[in-house]
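[job 0412] stage=complex_fold ligand=guanosine-5'-monophosphate status=START
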Amino acid sequence: MLIDNTSSFVADIKAGKITKVVITTHHKPDGDAMGSTLGLYHFLRAFISDVVVCVPNDYSENLFWLPANDTVVNFEKTPEVVSALVNEADVIFCLDFNRLSRINNLGKLVDESKSIKIMIDHHLEPDTFSKYTYWNSESSSTCELIYQWIENYFGKQYISPKVATCLYTGLMTDTGNFQHNNTKPSTLRLAADMMESGADHLQIHANIYDVFSLNRTRLFGYCLFKKIEVLAEFRTALIYLDRHEVKQFDLQTGDTEGLVNFGLGLKNIVLSVLIIDRTERVKLSFRSKGDFATNAFSARFFEGGGHKNASGGQSSLSLEETVAKFKSGLALYKKELLLV
Ligand code: 5GP
Ligand code: MN
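[job 0412] stage=complex_fold status=DONE, emitting structure tokens
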């Protein structure tokens, strides 16, 4: 169900009352995060000249081609610049996340800033830090929400080729190429609308998926050949990587994207997990089929969250301890896993 209290805010934009805007998104932004922030950036520039996208930290190189990517400011690289922008903004748009803890140290700055906050998001259980909210957990992606918000309040004529290109990117990546169960008839109609508005789907697909490094390809081969473990009694597939392996393949941000999906391709598997020792923390990615709620599982054991069938979490234990904790957690969910 859509929650929307943005109509007076839209009126303020149209009346020219908003002059300085920051758009931000979650930690390690993905295709939906960068597509939605840059899509909104291109749209807002029709009304407001001072708009800037600020990200909490770096993201995958296969998103660098997005139009206006060169204007994005990275908080980790230039904290003073972002701090000044956040403090001086009239409005901060928070896209593709709904808790300030998801943007690390930038969250504190955003929280303390006197700027008006607006959240546009599709994750479950939103916090209440924003004055304005446009939220729907049934939406495939934040890009879908941005499209609808623009179309409903401003009109389709504002979906320029640049806006459409950015938004199509997030629609495509957050649905796993229109494969996941967040793909509805309306999602495909929206993709068609975006193509008609100038999104070149072949080029976007090639920009995102045909640019892998040899290291990344070899990492996938190594994981599938040597590392994937099937826990048949829990209908679960598991891959975990230690620090040495992370170093051996010179893993860059985004290199492991998609790896967790391979486990779900196995017959009878309903839960797939990827656990990586990122040195500062151990990160976990969960994907499931059917009714198994990975977000509840990762919230219970790994300070995590996300969507029912795709979520993430973290652990400050060692890799071995994290794997052991995961396996003992699984034992408590055996019934649910066998029901799917
Ligand atoms: P991924 O496995 O691709 O990193 O994340 C999948 C989904 O889970 C994304 O929608 C992301 O927003 C969410 N997610 C990933 N890590 C975390 C986390 O540590 N906390 C929460 N709340 N959500 C996460
Ligand atoms: Mn998203």
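The chain has 14 helices and 13 strands.
[job 0412] exit 0
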